[in-house]
Amino acid sequence: MAGRCELLIGDEVKALEWLAGEDPDQALVRIGEAEYRVRFQSVDGQRILLQVNGRTVQAFLADAAGGKYVFIAGAVYRVEEAGQNRKRKSRAHLEEVSGEVTPPMPAVVVRLLVREGETVVQGQGLVVVSAMKMDTTLKAPVDGTVRKINTALQAKVMPGDRLVEIEERKQG
User: Would you tell me which CATH number, out of the four given (3.40.630.30, 1.10.3720.10, 3.10.310.70, 3.30.700.30), belongs to the domain 2-81?
Assistant: First the structure.
């Protein structure tokens, strides 16, 4: 089985093509010019184990209006089909996509790694959450300044909860 779609990931539209192999849990995936051999296994409704070109990666999914949040390796991406009817982004929506940190699944906050007003770089750890006996560090999606921390230690949090808001540093 083969297919093609366009996904909106953050502010970028990416063409995604796949060609399923003989094994229904395996596919050849192309995103732009890059090509990946992907094997996947659904662990539960929110967690998928991926093997991408032989490297194992865990992904978490959470529903969002018109799409999904995908959490991979400490980064959270909002993904929706590019062709979906959607209203133009307001400034608040842009911040939601690019400068907010949300957990991939229901979890408990076990550590806060930054303070309001602190300057952070993309990929820097911000909050550690624990779910299903596994700690996960949520990382900064952009360079910027921590504008607001909306959580506390031992808080029970859900996908879509905005734990940290970052005011993105503009280049130039």
Answer: 3.30.700.30
Residues 106, 33 contacting (CB under 8 angstroms) = no
Residue owning tokens 């909002």: 78
Angstrom distance (rounded) from CA 115 to CA 150? 11
In 3D space, the residue among 167, 105, 159 whose CA is nearest the CA of residue 131 turns out to be 105
Summarised one tens digit per residue, pLDDT across range 13-45 is: 878 888 877 777 788 888 878 898 888 887 777
Distance between CA atoms of residues 105 and 92, nearest Å: 23
Q: Where are the domains of the chain?
A: 2-81, 91-168
How far apart are the two ends of the chain, measured CA to CA in Å?
Answer: 45
Q: Is 113 helix (H, G, I), strand (E, B) or coil?
A: coil
CB atoms within 10 A of CB 89: 12
Say whether pTM exceeds 0.90. Answer: no
DSSP 23: S
| SS3 sequence of 121-171 | CCCCEEEEEEECCEEEEEECCCCEEEEEECCCCCCEECCCCCCEEEEECCC
Cβ-Cβ contacts under 8 Å for 143 (sequence gap 6 or more) = 120, 121, 122, 168, 169
